[in-house]
Amino acid sequence: MEPPSAGDVRDLLRRARRLLGDARDLVVEHERAVAEVRDALGPLRDRQAEAELDAMPVSRLKDVTSGRLRIGALEEAGYTTVRSVLRAMPYELQKLPGVGPQTRKQAQKAAEGIALATRRSRTVHIDVDDRDAETTRLLLALHRLVAVGPELPRARRTAEAVGGRLRELIPQARPIGNWLRRLLSGSRRRARAERAVERIAALLADETETRLLIAQATTDLLRPPPDGALAWIDFEIHAADYYNLLAELSALAPSDRAAAEGFLPGDLAERVREQELDDTLRRVSLRGYQAFGARFALAQRRVILGDDMGLGKTIQAIAVMAHLHARGTTHSLVVCPASVLVNWLREIETRSSLKAYRLHGDDRRLAHAAWLERGGVAVTTYAGLHTLEIEPRVGVLVVDEAHYVKNRQARRSKAVAGWCDRVGRVLFMTGTPMENRIEEFRSLVDYLQPGLFGTVEANDSAQAFRRAVAPVYLRRNQQDVVTELPDLVHMDEWEEFSAADAEAYRDAVASGRFMTMRRAAYAVPEKSAKLERLRELVDEAAEAELKVVVFSYFRDVLAAVGQALGSPVHGPLSGELAPERRQGVIDAFTAARGHAVLLAQIQTGGVGLNLQAASVVIICEPQVKPTMESQAVARAYRMGQVRRVQVHRLLTPDSMDERLLEIMNAKATLFDAYARRSHLAESTPDAIDISEETLAEQIVREERRRLAAG
């Protein structure tokens, strides 16, 4: 094979230098954006740490000095907090009666040690009710990175990898880019240059895709900052993304690593920490406890992930599959209830580069054939699993809501057992605490490691039981990893229409009734897919003894919800209730012991009321005005540091729900420009909401066209 001509080499080097420049630009802009976050984070962390030290009793100094420090004289002189000791001048302390040089040095050294540890471990809390300039500055800096989207980590890794290789190869290839240099170069140098040219050509094989990935991320990073009001609204909607990024950039470990690691035995925890976790095919960063959970599943091969509701079991499973596929696995299989199948498909393709196949519905045979041929992640339901032949190439089987198979005699349980017998790696996921159902838990363990319990009985000590199940079971509770959690977690629950839902929706579209279209998913309550998912969410909250508030724009939807739940509910709150009666309903809801459900019209319960008792919020349908959702969520979001709020928004794919979200997202840039120009828009978030009449006409028109084409 003849070496490339000097002209070909020059063209290749020109393309390589252009790609190298793009890669450098992205790295520089990303580092600048990260530096802005850290610059904004410092003052806030110091301020909040000082507040914590100001509330910390001076007696904590005795803990640091193992009780050797005498603090009585300090307390009598008014130095009652750690911060007061920290701020005192040395001579002020030393002149106190009973405080000598040694005591003064010990006290201030202990205070400095506590202050340093507090600042290092401080997780900044963003309070939506305290929108000061420093916090707004931090949100604007975070928004720059969050707005780029999930491709930013991959784009940064690609830029670093490609840039590093090109910086090394371009100088090596230069000698054959000019006929005179080629002539004057020795044979060894020419051979080295030719090898470098070959490697550059290989790197540029996907030049268009690589440049597009890098250039898009760079362009997004260079966008002008939004108005502060928009940054706050975006934070309320995507708080989990902001807190994920904040935790990553803060580089903070959980205050109790043992709790974050599920109190596993030391040797097992160490082995799990050493497990590699490839993020090449993953598009989202993991929190510390999530990365540990994924490593646990990889290291132990056949496990149950039993994290508390809302801690991200799905993303941990996706991280496991992404790692395995990056290391050579070709096929994975997820089994889940039909109600969450759409969520799984969306999460896999949003959070990773893996292709997801829906083995459910009319096209399941075609999807199954495509999955077998091309590889990726197949997602099926419990009802559909028994129809699939066991595929030996499956590298991992993920079983969501695994408590569905606790009855070993059921058909779905037998189907899962058959796959477990043939697949080397299995990940069961369930939020049901093992302490409540030991026998059912034992049944789940037997799928994975029969006989693991040995002689351990249900009435043995919890410690003995925990030791027995440690190799197969990992659970983290909400309160154990609270420093790793956002104050607000948004989860979109995509539920497909049932046949009855679809018929009601088509009729509403045909008649052009926009409001009827919005609530068509509840037209036949006994066959409503959304209501079925709502009941599941309420049942999960009831198990955890959490209070729930259900919002809808429509009274008849709330009536259907109340009837579907069966048990007594509070409300509904509506505009027809006098203010004092509204507060009476809220007081009764708050005073109820344990789990309770409150129904509220979103335009009533979302404004001017405090619902701190609720930690689970369910929104029955997307709202025309995004601020209406934000205000409703903010009623429960006030719980702040006590418990994070989970927000579940019920949505239906291939319906006006999807169209409404698309239109509202497309208006984000218009919002940005409008808010910067108008003081009225800055002070009135509702100013950006689109005319309901215009929106209704657009959606009805588009849905008629789509259904007619279908």
Structural class per helix/strand content?
Answer: alpha/beta
Principal-axes geometry comes out as globular
Helix content: 55-70%
Q: Major beta sheet, specifics? A: 7 strands, parallel
Strand content: 5-15%
Total domain modules: 3
- The count of strands amounts to 13
Average pLDDT level: 82
- Low-confidence segments, given as residue ranges, are 638-642, 668-690
Task: Calculate Rg over CA atoms.
Answer: 29 Å
EC number: 3.6.4.-
Domain Helicase C-terminal: 533-696
InterPro entries: Helicase_ATP-bd (IPR014001), Helicase_C-like (IPR001650), SNF2/RAD54-like_C (IPR049730), SNF2_N (IPR000330)
Enzyme class: hydrolase
Description of the structure:
The chain is globular and about 90 Å long. It has 34 helices and 13 strands. Helix 28 links the parallel strand 10 and strand 11. It has 710 residues and is an alpha/beta fold. It folds into three domains: 1-229, no CATH class; 256-481, Tandem AAA-ATPase domain (Rossmann fold, 3-Layer(aba) Sandwich), CATH 3.40.50.10810; 487-709, Rossmann fold (3-Layer(aba) Sandwich), CATH 3.40.50.300. Strands 3-4-2-5-6-1-7 form a seven-stranded parallel beta sheet, with helices on both faces. The chain has a six-stranded parallel beta sheet with strand order 8-13-12-9-11-10, with helices on both faces. Mean pLDDT is 82; it is low at 638-642 and 668-690.
